[in-house]
Design goal:
This protein has eight helices and seven strands. It has one domain: 3-Layer(aba) Sandwich (Rossmann fold). The longest helix is centred in the middle third of the chain and has 22 residues. By secondary structure, it is of the alpha/beta class. It has a seven-stranded parallel beta sheet, with helices on both faces. The radius of gyration is 17 Å and the shape is globular.
């Protein structure tokens, strides 16, 4: 496949965790990848090197997904990368993955914490998608990340889950409005996953890991590849008739 023929994905927060896993799964399918990072340039470079080792092409861009003021510059930088790296003026897949985790009881959640979550998880997704739409090819695909916590409720995640609930509603509206362009829009909602998200508590706290596993039908917490593989399959598989859906990947958590 030549560079001009290659499909290209743009993944926010693609240097680590679920975004990195998604990028690597797509690379295995021959998809070129643009990943974003906020501050950990070394992790982004490592991910780019691994993508290239797998035979795909990758670019890393710095992007704060909670800073709407920087989105126009990000769009312009992406446009330039598409032209210089792939000889294209469009990309095919948008994965709104970047996120932060704040665990705080409803009565203790501050306005600053609420705003930080909103800016990254809802406002950022809304306006970054809006800015990038002119570069997204007709027939392209968008995947937004939500959470199992939008279905079941655990104390300490009211603000976080509220933002993800908003993303799920936004997904359906985007699917409706972008349908005439043949663009599909879906939500992937992970359950408990062993990553460094939220300080790595699910991954590193063995007792908590066991307690959560006891609530999951398949008997274990998720791994990044459980999510990255699912997102990759949704993007590159024959799923052009799947849109406006919330797809939970939780191993059957709290069913």
């Amino acid at each position: 496949m030549t560079k001009t023929e290659q499909r290209i994905a743009f993944i926010t927060g693609g240097s680590r965790g679920l975004g990195r896993s998604t990028a690597l799964h797509l690379a295995d399918q021959g998809v070129g990848v643009v990943i974003t990072y906020v501050s950990n340039e070394a992790a982004a470079a490592t991910t780019v090197a691994e993508i290239e080792r797998r035979g795909a092409t990758a670019v890393a861009m710095r992007l704060d997904s909670g800073d709407v003021a920087g989105f126009d510059a990000a769009r312009d930088a992406l446009s330039e990368s598409l032209k210089t790296t792939w000889g294209r003026d469009s990309f095919d897949f948008l994965v709104n993955n970047a996120g932060i985790g704040i665990h705080s009881a409803f009565v203790d959640t501050t306005e600053d914490e609420f705003d930080r979550l909103m800016n990254v998880h809802l406002k950022g997704v809304f306006f970054l998608t809006q800015r990038l739409l002119p570069l997204l090819a007709d027939g392209g695909r968008i995947v937004n990340l939500s959470t199992g916590l939008a279905r079941f409720a655990l104390p300490g995640y009211a603000a976080y889950a509220a933002m993800k609930g908003g993303v799920e509603v936004l997904t359906r509206y985007l699917a409706k409005e972008l349908g005439p362009r043949g663009i599909t829009v879906n939500t992937i909602a992970p359950g408990a996953i062993a990553t460094d998200f939220g300080g790595g508590v699910v991954r590193d706290n063995a007792e908590l890991n066991r307690q959560i596993a006891d609530t999951i039908a398949l008997g274990r917490v998720g791994q990044p590849d459980d999510i990255g593989g699912a997102i990759s399959a949704l993007l590159v598989g024959p799923n052009q008739w799947v849109t406006a859906q919330r797809i939970e990947i939780s191993g059957g958590q709290l069913i």
